[in-house]
Amino acid sequence: MKVIVLDNAAQIGEEVGKIFVNQVNNKPDSVLGLATGMSPVPTYDYMAKEYAAGNVSFKNVTTFNLDEYCDLPKSDKNSFYSFMVDNLFSRTDIDLDKVNFIDGNAEEKAECERYEKAIETAGGIDLQLLGIGTNGHIGFNEPADEFTQHTYKVKLTDSTIASNQKFFGDVPMPRYAMTMGIGSIMKAKKIVLIATGESKAKAAYAMVKGEVSPSCPASVLQNHEDAVIFLDKEAAKLL
Ligand code: GLP
Question: I want to staple 183 with a disulfide (CB 3.0 to 4.6 A). Which of 130, 149, 219, 232 is the partner?
């Protein structure tokens, strides 16, 4: 695990954005693993800017998003699909036919198997982007007794609900989601994780300096051959 500390989220967005643009320029049909949340937004801004400048085309990439809420229509403004359309897909030439999402409203077992198979058929993920929850979750893999393996349906923890309810206003947010498992994430050839802001400092410490334990799911990245962690100064303050 390599840790890079930069001054702020904008600088991280530019550096991680460059990693994605270089990946796609070197391999135009790359398989990209994408994440939602506020942490990747500056990276998506950079990718959109480079596309607009004619410096990269995403038309041949295949994408897989990490997770999606259950019991929420895909078209809902708070679905992770809508988030990706707004923040990246509609701002680049990404081919929506090559965009893969878990259907959080489908029958769990068949859908999870379908998603795992789709990743495998695409040749596996070349470059996976991650954020981290304040409790150390990646995707929606919440702290647990053991590391999860494959895509599955998860009951969200109170702390995740407290963090994400703000996006839903007065409407109660979904209590369940489907997410790629830790095993699915760890199969990616390269992983880049972004953590910014003081609220991520404890989770960043546990991920980087703590023991590898499912009580902090992100700590598993210590075992990955090519994982790069980008932290801003606030997120790195306990290291
Ligand atoms: C969500 C997502 C994660 C994300 C995390 C942190 O719950 N499922 O993939 O990393 O929250 O989000 P943010 O970047 O907004 O802090």
Answer: 149
